[in-house]
Design a protein that fits this description.
By secondary structure, the chain is α+β, with helices and mostly antiparallel strands. The protein has four helices and seven strands. A hairpin with a 3-residue loop joins β5 and β6 (88-100). The radius of gyration is 16 Å and the shape is globular.
């Protein structure tokens, strides 16, 4: 499963970008219980952290690697990858482009690939509608949190 979705957010690029600091993860990914740095490199790319995710009563912990990172005045970009439940390889990309002082284009792209029989079977059985809903819910949360932070700043 692959996706790319865009959303215009009525908040400055720095406000939206701040939501993608590892310490802010719970705000935009409510099932994330904890992020703990394993290795934080000065250039950020190549840094790793341990993420704990809760699904129902079960917690899953895995290592996330930041594979791409760019932070300029007009463009912010971060790509991460990790294996979830030893069944899926996840690649997620978050890109923000400055449209104006008060507007940001947010691009959320990713892929979810089954890495063993169980993972491939679960992806085939899963509903594309449900997968798309998860993506739209994430875009909604990012927009809501960015608008909230922008209002608090003004």
């Amino acid at each position: 499963m692959k996706w790319t979705e865009e959303r215009l957010i009525d908040a400055p690029i720095e406000v939206v970008w701040s939501l993608f600091e590892e310490e802010q993860a719970k705000r935009i990914m409510p099932k994330v219980v904890e992020n703990r740095w394993l290795e934080k490199k000065p250039e950020v790319k190549g840094s790793t952290y341990e993420q704990t995710y809760q699904e129902g009563k079960r917690n899953e912990t895995y290592v996330v690697e930041i594979v791409e990172y760019k932070n300029t005045d007009h463009l912010k970009h971060k790509s991460i990858q990790f294996q979830l439940a030893r069944a899926f390889e996840m690649n997620l990309t978050f890109t923000m482009e400055k449209v104006s002082e008060q507007q940001t284009k947010f691009i959320y792209a990713g892929s979810n690939k089954g890495i063993n029989f169980l993972g491939r079977a679960m992806l085939k059985l899963g509903s594309k509608v449900n997968g798309n809903q998860v993506i739209y819910d994430f875009l909604d949360r990012v927009e809501q949190e960015a608008l909230h932070d922008y209002k608090v700043l003004n």
